[in-house]
Write a structure and sequence with these properties.
This protein is an alpha/beta fold and 369 residues long. It has helices spanning 15-27, 34-44, 58-68, 86-92, 112-121, 140-149, 202-212, 233-244, 246-267, 294-306, 331-339, 351-363; strands at 51-55, 76-80, 97-101, 125-131, 153-157, 178-182, 195-199, 287-290, 340-343. Strand 4 (125-131), helix 6 (140-149) and strand 5 form a beta-alpha-beta unit. It binds pyridoxal-5'-phosphate (PLP). Residues 57-59, 83-84, 86-87, 131, 157, 159-160, 182, 184, 195 line the site of pyridoxal-5'-phosphate.
């Protein structure tokens, strides 16, 4: 395997970010300080009037949201059949039953028609988790409406979709009862680890704050049972720098995605490139294409990696195969596991790396003929 010269993630710090983190370290205020509060207020400003609560990971954001909705033993939570394991694990950890529903083959997001069918048959569903997979909100407005009409709670797992809008151009963050974001190293806003919960309901935000901090708003006044899901100050300072540059970075991601779409369509006959319904609705956490068959997909991933390009498969499993999840028939999700491949789309690709990427896409086109 050759060395990767075109990485899928570049989370290294700028001088400004190093200075911001260093300032926190020098201050000695490493927890419960001004950075997390500032992050909450600046993050909320991007989320259509929602209130934001900083937590220690995207998984914790889902878990705390579930606890705030009192999801527990034997409640049924619907998740998409194709997403990262955390979407299911957060609710399994609450003792809930997790029921996957298949995704739409063009949006990769939960199929609204299938969701309507499941909700009509399953009155035991308490909550639907809608994921903006790869940073795309395509099809999610419809899925959220279906869940609302059925009267169930909605959590939007936007762990890959910071700064995305719905298809009317409205920023996400206030559509569900809760929206969850991850600040993991690879994410559009990254701090190493961390997360943010947003909600349009200030009372629910207050509940999430209590759940995040052992049930306390004031030190040693434990109002409810909670845990420690707090975001440390150094991570908050780094995330704050990156939130301020999110719009610029998402624009670069979209620019790279437009180039990649053209190059893939030019070189790989039969490839399906991502659906973009509105200029700003997709923030390209991943640029993921669908190949015509598994042989081409696997040969293309290997060929690209041999050329130094960090091509990867997100994800090689369906949610129904994870421990603890209810078995379900997920033909679209199953097929995606063997057909998808993701190309580096991150905003810090240099012109030289972009050229290597283009050359590699051309070089592996022999696998497609
Ligand atoms: C769709 C989705 N949900 C949840 C998570 C969990 O976030 P974290 O890794 O910060 O716990 C991730 C992160 O990879 C994700 O991609």
């Amino acid at each position: 395997m050759s060395t990767i010269t075109v990485p899928g993630v570049d989370a290294s710090g700028t001088d400004e970010e190093v200075a911001a983190v260093t300032a926190v370290l020098r201050s000695g205020q490493l927890a419960n300080g001004a950075q997390a509060r500032a992050l909450e207020s600046e993050f909320a400003a991007l989320c259509n009037g929602a209130t934001a609560v900083a937590v220690s990971s995207g998984t914790d954001a889902l878990y705390v949201s579930g606890r705030a909705l009192s999801i527990g033993a034997s409640d049924v939570v619907v998740v998409p059949g194709y997403t990262f394991a955390a979407t299911a694990n957060a609710f399994l950890s609450l003792g809930a039953r997790v029921l996957p529903v298949d995704v739409d083959p063009t949006t990769f997001n939960i199929d609204p028609d299938l969701l309507a069918g499941v909700l009509a048959k399953r009155p035991d569903v308490r909550c639907v988790v809608v994921v903006d997979l790869y940073g795309s909100t395509a099809g999610t407005t419809e899925a959220i409406s279906v869940a609302r009409e059925a009267g169930v709670a909605v959590i939007e797992d936007a762990c890959q979709a910071h700064g995305a809008t719905d298809t009317t151009g409205t920023p996400i963050g206030a559509r569900g009862d809760f929206t969850t974001f991850s600040l993991y190293a690879s994410k559009n806003v990254s701090a190493g680890e961390g997360g943010v919960i947003t909600t349009p309901d200030p009372k629910m935000a207050q509940l999430a704050r209590l759940l995040r901090n052992h049930g306390c708003d004031t030190q040693y006044q434990h109002e409810i049972v909670g845990l420690n899901h707090r975001l440390p100050e150094m991570e908050a300072a780094l995330a704050l720098c990156r939130v301020r540059r999110l719009a610029e970075m998402n624009l670069l991601r979209r620019h790279n995605a437009a180039l990649l779409s053209k190059w893939c369509l030019d070189e790989w006959p039969g490839v399906i490139v991502p659906t973009v319904l509105l200029e700003s609705s997709h923030v390209f956490h991943q640029f993921t294409v669908v190949c015509p068959d598994v042989t081409k997909r696997d040969a293309t991933v290997k060929g690209l990696r041999d050329h130094g390009v960090d091509a990867r498969v997100y994800y090689p499993y369906v949610i129904a195969d994870l421990p603890g999840v209810e078995r379900a028939h997920l033909p679209v999700s199953e097929s995606l596991t063997s057909l998808v491949l993701s190309l580096p789309v991150q905003p810090r690709l240099t012109p030289q790396q972009t050229e290597i990427l283009h050359d590699a896409i051309r070089a592996v086109s022999k696998e497609w003929h």
